[in-house]
Design a protein that fits this description.
CATH superfamily: Hotdog Thioesterase
Low-confidence stretches: none
Radius of gyration: 16 Å
Number of domains: 1
Oligomer: single chain
Order of helices and strands: EHHEEEEEH
Structural class: alpha+beta
Strand content: 35-45%
CATH class: Alpha Beta
Mean pLDDT: 88
Distance between the termini: 5 Å
Largest sheet: 6 strands, antiparallel
Number of helices: 3
Shape: elongated
Number of strands: 6
CATH topology: Thiol Ester Dehydrase, Chain A
Helix content: 25-40%
């Protein structure tokens, strides 16, 4: 499953060099991940079980400066089932300038499933893996 959202770059996103501040990209990527799961049955099921997603690693490649007035498109894809590990899984996220092939930045975001009761990472069970497969096939 993949999802795409658009964000217009505003003045408060910029740094002293007049392009989007590197820390803002983390926020943009997070906004896109929330959008990815907002309509997800898998997320709703996990929330009922007090299981949440916790980011444990983000690797970002900055490629092109975005600036005020531009619209960026953030594409998020949960990696294939083969890449859904026993405890970790990943999102591949890419930000483009709208209506172009220009990549502003891309990221691989690694997350774990986290049990809200025990406050510990948990394994990706077969039931959870099957929910992911359902999300990937949509």
């Amino acid at each position: 499953m993949s999802k795409e959202i658009k964000i217009k770059v505003r003045g408060y996103h910029l740094d002293g060099y007049q392009h989007v501040n590197n820390a803002r990209y983390l926020e943009f990527f997070e906004e896109a991940r929330w959008a990815f799961f907002e309509e997800s049955d898998a997320l709703k099921t996990l929330q009922k079980k007090n299981i949440m997603f916790v980011v444990v690693n983000v690797n970002i490649n900055y490629r092109y400066p975005a600036s005020v007035g531009q619209t960026i498109v953030i594409k998020s894809k949960l990696q294939t089932l083969a890449e859904v590990g026993s405890k970790t899984s990943t999102f591949k996220q890419t930000i483009y300038l709208e209506n172009t092939d220009t990549i502003v930045c891309d990221a691989v975001v690694t997350f774990v499933l986290f049990d809200g009761k025990t406050q510990r990472a948990i394994a990706t069970t077969e039931e959870i893996r099957e929910m992911f497969v359902g999300e990937l096939s949509n």
